[in-house]
Design a protein that fits this description.
Pfam families: Htt_bridge (PF20925). Helix content is 78%, strand content 0%. It is mostly helical. The mean pLDDT is 88.
């Protein structure tokens, strides 16, 4: 091996090591934040700045526990949803979309209107049938939750104007039959 190849290999190994440490640190920080949920500053920082990492690492038990803890709190769950809406541009990859849907599945009941809007506006039109069916199922569950809630709560989460916009969106894209 030449000196140039050694340098390139060392550089690649260094990048790999940094990525392993970065992921491990995020997983450990999720565990720390889970144990210190009263510290909203750390929770907010983690959700806002690392939402894509949280989604990609959502199969890790400490990250799963963190996401579950976030969804037990209405405000934190809303922050999680807003972070996905504003920071996740690449939801077109099937694996990323599936993991995102799994992270959104347990979202707080008070966020049903907002998550339903996200499902309809951004996720339901996926070309992947299995994922479209998954979005469809999750959206139907949220509609059922809104219908089961009292009228004032439902209207507060999904105003009539927004409901009409969602219906028009579904009809214009040919998705209303779902």
């Amino acid at each position: 091996m030449s000196g140039e190849e050694d340098t390139e290999l060392a550089s690649k190994l260094g990048m790999c090591n940094r990525e392993i440490v970065r992921r491990g640190a995020l997983i450990l920080f999720c565990d720390y934040v889970c144990q210190n949920l009263h510290d909203s500053e750390h929770l907010t920082w983690l959700v806002v700045n690392h939402i894509q990492d949280l989604i990609s690492l959502s199969h890790e038990p400490p990250v799963q526990d963190f996401v579950s803890a976030v969804h037990r709190n209405s405000a934190a769950s809303g922050l999680f949803l807003q972070a996905i809406q504003s920071r996740c541009e690449s939801l077109s990859a099937p694996t990323t979309l599936r993991k995102t849907l799994q992270c959104l599945e347990g979202i707080h009941l008070s966020q049903s209107g907002a998550v339903l809007t996200l499902y309809v506006d951004k996720l339901l039109c996926t070309p992947f049938r299995v994922l479209a069916r998954m979005v469809d199922t999750l959206a139907c569950r949220r509609v059922e939750m809104l219908l089961a809630a009292n009228f004032q709560s439902s209207v507060a989460q999904l105003p009539v104007e927004e409901l009409n916009r969602v219906q028009e969106h579904l009809q214009s894209r040919g998705l209303a039959h779902r």
